Amino acid sequence: MLGSTLRGVMGVLALACAASALAGHPPMPFESPWQHLGVATCAGSNCHGSQRPFDDSPVMQNEYFTWERNDAHSNAFKLLQGADGKRIADNLGIKDATKAEECLVCHTDYVAPAQRGRRYAMSEGVACEACHGGAQDWLGPHVSGNSHQQNLDAGLYPLEDPVARTRLCLQCHLGTGDKPIDHRIMGAGHPPLEFEVGAFTLYQPEHFRVDADYLERKPAHVSGARLWAIGQIVAAQLYLEELRSPRFKDHGLFPELVFFDCNACHHPMRPPRWSTGTGGALDAGEPRLMDAYLVMSGAVLTVLTPDASGRWQDGLRGLQQASRESVGKIQERAAALSGLAEQSLQQVGSQMIDKAQTIALMQQVARLGAGPRAADYTSAKQIYYAIDSLLADLKRQHGVGKDALNAEMDLLFTAFDPSRPFDPAALRKTLQQISQRVTTL
Ligand code: HEC
Ligand code: HEC
Ligand code: HEC
Ligand code: HEC
Prior knowledge:
Largest sheet: none
Radius of gyration: 22 Å
Bound molecules: heme C
């Protein structure tokens, strides 16, 4: 069920570009018509394959080695060859995961044959052009005086833009119609996908420097609390879009379970653990939609656009309760929430966020987890990412000492250690402490 964009005919590609442009989004690297030339093309020692960062260059120039040695993305194809990849493939009746489109779409820079340049190789995994866009037309010009806008016009993907970046990462880190993942693949042993653009940008080994020169070239760049806040709403939007697509609905007796909260169904039954995971929207025994991005967006709106917050909470409640009625009703409610998300994104995107607001955001998410949401593992994990991102911003931008809340962060981190049972009560206690201490930062 891959999107038509991957089917490779140029006419279809042109249409896909038009569709993306109409929706107001630049075409994704895998959608646009330019050829992908392969990592070897980027990795020359005078280009991005220097052993050490250059001091006197606008970019680091050792990006290739950072990616190759430290970045998980260079390992993405190898995962398909390893024991876990083989086991998942076996369980699905796939003979060879390294040849299966349903794995390759996310584990490589997967483009249509017409877009594969001479040195393109799928075995490189999630390579430079999977994020930066096919270099066919910008390769030469980007080192000979092109402006950033000219590079963008030639197919460079605008990763500095927080909306464009989040939408791209989530293609693989959430799954979409173009890069689908479903409960069948999860059931075969694939790890659940979780993502937060601020934290994951920090976790990706640093291969770019945001300095004065960078900001002059790329004024649209956003980081810290703003990146987190915008990223949550974009993730909520993409989830709602997918919820409205045939992926969710066309499934016989049950809708596609990957849209529901894994832990609503999968958790030990002893000791009994249910405690109003949706804050009362649903009763015990009702499976809940995976609403972590929607809940986090609610926290963003409560602090930054309080006028929209009540409507959002009502909409979210309505969405959860629609699962008592029908798939059609869920999709109807998702459409209404999508409209609200778009308005909120405009408002939140145009705001700066100061230190007091960053603290208020952190307190808001910590409070959520200090209440019933601690029992909802998926939201609790998002709360962890939120606090990690926001705290990093307070330390980098707002003069908060580098050791502040480190002990609490360690406790939070161990709460998600997969080798121990998940303990909502302990988590709640730590989040209570954080919500109190954060106001003293
Ligand atoms: C929607 C995109 C997507 C699809 C489709 C997908 N994967 Fe993944 N896969 C990911 C991401 C993202 C991760 C990393 C998760 C993380 O660490 O956050 C991952 C992780 C893995 C891992 C590491 C497992 C572990 O426990 O660390 C294996 C193995 C794997 N995938 C195999 C497969 C196979 C085999 C298929 C095809 C049947 C497949 N994947 C399809 C996105 C995808
Ligand atoms: C998973 C996505 C991803 C992959 C893979 C990736 N990058 Fe990046 N790269 C980014 C993001 C995000 C940024 C920061 C936003 C921006 O400036 O475009 C960035 C920034 C850069 C910059 C800095 C640009 C500037 O204006 O200062 C360079 C150079 C770069 N990447 C080169 C590479 C090279 C070379 C590779 C492959 C070896 C690569 N990247 C792989 C996501 C990626
Ligand atoms: C084409 C698919 C694809 C895209 C686009 C993509 N990723 Fe990934 N990402 C993966 C896969 C697959 C893995 C797992 C690789 C592994 O574990 O070796 C991964 C792993 C990661 C990890 C390591 C996670 C962990 O648990 O160790 C981080 C961090 C990450 N990605 C960040 C990003 C960010 C930020 C973006 C957007 C700028 C992005 N990714 C875009 C496919 C993708
Ligand atoms: C509505 C309930 C429900 C939701 C939500 C759900 N699952 Fe499942 N899952 C099931 C059922 C039912 C089975 C089949 C169990 C069996 O074979 O007896 C299953 C099987 C599995 C299996 C196979 C191993 C096992 O425990 O039987 C895995 C792994 C799995 N699911 C992971 C996930 C992940 C990851 C998510 C979230 C993305 C998820 N599930 C969401 C109900 C659910």
